[in-house]
Design a protein that fits this description.
2 helices; Lipocalin; alpha+beta
């Protein structure tokens, strides 16, 4: 009887491994694009992925995580001195303070199947602050795509925010910024 129980446990363990898979994200083939808005215009650019993985069970997304190199923030809508100045400002203590917080992370905490893909909830950590964010994600052919809105004010990114400062007028910068994420695995 003990032999039968042991064999059953071995089979169950092997079956769980066969159906649960974790795939590393290809850093070189994945992209993260950002877009920030102010009253009179917007700016956009890219940021590099450091690494991560996505977990699946029976071909259904179940979890995962990734980390971002905050020192790699690049502005792609400007050139020359304006580009360099904005990149420097975004990396400064006014915004993401990349010297003190060189990495941001996202850990998936819940996944629900939807008609269009998944509703994913993840804990985002930016500048040492962690908050949950829920967003839609699609997965097809070893690629996961998500468009995520982040409220920077929750992460102590205050510069130009009407949430913290009065009378900014047309110099106000909206609290929400967008991330368009493509993770290839």
């Amino acid at each position: 009887m003990k032999s039968l129980q042991f064999n059953l446990l071995v089979w169950l363990f092997a079956a769980s491994i066969a159906f649960a898979q974790s795939y590393p994200i290809s850093v070189s083939n994945s992209t993260i694009e950002w877009k920030g808005y102010k009253l009179t215009s917007d700016h956009y650019g890219t940021i590099k992925l450091l690494g991560g993985d996505l977990a699946f069970e029976d071909d259904q997304l179940t979890g995962g995580s990734f980390s971002v190199d905050m020192t790699s923030i690049v502005v792609t809508d400007l050139t020359g001195g304006s580009k360099k100045n904005l990149e420097k400002h975004l990396k400064s203590g006014d915004f993401f303070d990349v010297e003190q917080f060189p990495e941001a992370t996202m850990v998936i905490t819940a996944v629900e199947k939807t008609d269009d893909g998944y509703s994913v909830t993840g804990d985002f950590t930016i500048k040492g602050q962690t908050h949950p964010v829920t967003f839609p994600m699609t997965v097809k052919d070893n690629s996961a795509k998500a468009d995520v809105k982040i409220d920077r004010s929750k992460y102590n990114v205050r510069y130009g925010s009407n949430s913290f400062f009065d009378n900014l007028g047309n110099k106000a910068i909206y609290d929400e910024f967008d991330l368009s994420v493509t993770l290839n695995f």
